[in-house]
Amino acid sequence: MYLPNSPASASPEQTQRSQDHDISVNACIFDIDSPILPHHNTSMRPYNRTTTLRKSAGFPMQKLVVLPDPLLEEAARYHITSGLYVTDIGYFHEAEHHYRDRPQGCDSHILMYCVQGTGWYELDGSKPQVVHAGDLVILPAYMAHVYGANAAEPWSIYWIHLRGEHASTYIELLLANKISAIAPSKAPKWLELFHECYDALETGYSLQAMIYATQITGYMLGMLAYGQGTGASMISSKRAAEQSVQYMLEHLEHGLTLKELAAQAQLSAPHYSQLFKQATGHSPIDYFLRLKIQHSCRYLDFTDWTVKQISSELGFKDPYYFSRLFSKMMGRSPTEYRNKSKG
Q1: How far is CA 214 from the centre of its chain?
Q2: pLDDT, tens digit, for every residue of 195-213?
Q3: Main-chain phi, psi angles of 14, to 5 degrees
Q4: Per residue in 17-53, pLDDT tens?
Q5: Secondary structure of the chain as H, E, C letters
Q6: pLDDT at 78 over 60
Q7: Residue 61, pLDDT score
C-alpha cells in the first residue's frame, strides 16, 4: 500500500500534482477588489496581473484525495479501469481565494460542480463564464483554462479528475450536448455517488478501490450524458416523448401512424418527429414497434397463445411480418424465444 505524502512512495510526477493542488488552495490577493474579476477585457485576466500568493492551510471542511502515480499507471494498464479512472477527487467548501491557472491545460479531464456561491472560468481563451450554484464546469484535458472563486461569495465545489478513452468519449458527449448544469432532480443522486466514490478511494491506495470507483464514476457520467436535459428544448422533447409513449402504451393493439401521433401531441409531424428522436434516439414509429415487440415477449413468456394470436392482439395484420420483425429486434424467432429457458 502507498502511504499518503510519504517521500518513499511519491514520484516526481505525483509531487508536481500535489504542488498543483497546493497552488490551488493558496490565497491569491489581486490588486482590485471585485466580486467577479472584470475579464471581459482580456488584458485584465488574473494570470496577466501581478499576484501575491499567501500559503493557506486550505479550506474549511475540504476533502482531497490525490492518487499516486504508480497506482494510476497500474489502473491505465488494467483492462477494467484503463478506459476510465479517477486521478484526483475532492470538495472545497466556501473556497475563498481559490484560483487556478493552467496555460497548458491539465493531463486529466476535470469536472467541477458548484453547489453554492459563485465563481468563474475561462476555457482556451474564450469569453469568461460566471458559475452559479447548480452549474457544471467541464474542462477537457490539455486545454488551457483558468478559474477562480468569487471574492465576495466564494463557491463550494465538488471536483473530479478523470483519464481514459471512455472518459474522453463522455467529455466530448457532454460538451456536444452543451451540458452545463445538473438538473435539481438528479443532483442528490449524483452527489451521493460522488461521496461513495470519494469514500472508496479514501480507504486506501489499491486497485480494488480504483475498480469500484470506476464503476461509480461511469454511473455519474452516464447520468450527466444520458439521464438529464437542462435546456428548454430538451425539456420540451422529454415532455412530448413521455406523453407520446404513454399514449402508445395505451394503444398497442392499434396501428398508429405518424400523423396520428403528431396530432395527439398537438405538433406538426416534422417537429414531433424531431423532438421525439431527440429525447429517445428513435423515430416515433420505430419506438412504437419496439414497444409492441417488448409486450409480445410477455405474451410468449406468460401465456400459451399462438404467435398468430399474439400478433393479432398487438395490431399486426400479417403474422409473418410480425415474426420477421420480432426476429430482427430480438435476434431469434418468437418460437425460439419462447423455448429459451429464462430466470
Answers
A1: 13
A2: 999 999 998 899 999 999 9
A3: -65, -40
A4: 544 554 443 333 232 233 333 333 333 334 343 332 2
A5: CCCCCCCCCCCHHHHHHHHHHHHHHCEEECCCCCCCCCCCCHHHCHHHCCCEEECCCCCCCCEEEECCHHHHHHHHHCCCCCCCEEEEEEEECCCCCCEEEECCCCCCEEEEEEEECEEEEEECCCCCEEECCCEEEEECCCCCEEEEECCCCECEEEEEEEECHHHHHHHHHHHHCCCCECCCCCHHHHHHHHHHHHHHHHCCCCHHHHHHHHHHHHHHHHHHHHCCCCCHHHHHHHHHHHHHHHHHHCCCCCCCCHHHHHHHCCCCHHHHHHHHHHHHCCCHHHHHHHHHHHHHHHHHHHCCCCHHHHHHHCCCCCHHHHHHHHHHHHCCCHHHHHHCCCC
A6: yes
A7: 79
Amino acid letter, 124: D
